[in-house]
């Protein structure tokens, strides 16, 4: 693979360390179903995601940052779990 701007991920362009890039990719895969965060220039780079998937991914990334910094998350009171199937409510 050539090292063109199209072939590089956004994190490579921003000099994000590989370990952080890998963590972001795991989170994107687990919570939003993305196979990779690499730009592939085409329709495969796009997919619809539910707002709760984005919220779950952001929470996971936030928690990963806290864990890396040696902190613990303080749970917010009265925060329901993200719905997995809103039509079932």
UniProtKB/TrEMBL annotation:
Basic and acidic residues biased stretches: 1-11
Segments of skewed composition (Polar residues): 79-89
Ranges where the record places region Disordered: 1-21, 69-89
Pfam families documented for this protein: DUF6900 (PF21841)
InterPro entries in alphabetical order: DUF6900
Domain DUF6900: 20-69
Source organism, top-level taxon: Bacteria
Protein name: DUF6900 domain-containing protein
Species this chain originates from: Myxococcus virescens
